[in-house]
Amino acid sequence: MANNNENNNKMTREEAGQKGGEKTSQEHGKEFYEEIGQKGGENSGNGSNSQQSSSSQNENTMSRSEAGQKGGETTSEEHGEDFYKDIGQKGGETTSEEHDKEFYEEIGQKGGKNSGNGSNNNSDSNNRR
Q1: 108-117: b or e for each residue (b if 16 or more CB lie within 10 Å)?
Q2: What confidence tens digit (pLDDT) does each residue in 25-49 have?
Q3: What's the CA dihedral at 15, 69, 114, 119 to 10 degrees?
Q4: Which of 34, 54, 32 is closest to 44 using CA atoms?
Q5: SS3 90
């Protein structure tokens, strides 16, 4: 990974957050995400009590970005480089098992379009096969 600090084998917060999210995704099924999504919707301020509780909730809550960053930091602190190598290997193997040659050709072409030209704009992202 480009942002990985190879001198002390630590990941950036972004990399750790990504890996933590991938690990959570592997450990929990669709029902888990449906349940927490429903709970989040119930607490989003759309209910009749939203005015009363919003100020106290704001003091004790963090944004999704902050929560992801905190989770990534915790995961990074608790697990070493081998952990990330292992889950990366497992993820790569799973992806390889689930996709065929055409998938890799397509993502390779998209990656090639975004490299070397100074642009990360993937203008054909909606033109999938």
Answers
A1: eeeeeeeeee
A2: 888 777 777 787 877 777 665 444 4
A3: -130
A4: 54
A5: helix
Q: Does any domain span residue 123? A: no
**Structural domain includes residue 121:** no
CA distance 83 to 59: 34
CA 57 to chain CA mean position, Å: 25
Q: Are residues 66 and 104 in the same domain?
A: no
Specify the pTM: 0.34
| 125 domain residue, yes or no | no
Question: How many distinct structural domains can be found in the chain?
Answer: 2
> In this structure, are residues 17 and 68 in contact, taking their beta carbons and an 8 Å threshold?
yes
Q: Is residue 124 part of a domain?
A: no
Q: What is the DSSP string of 102-118?
A: HHHHHHHHHHHHHSSSS
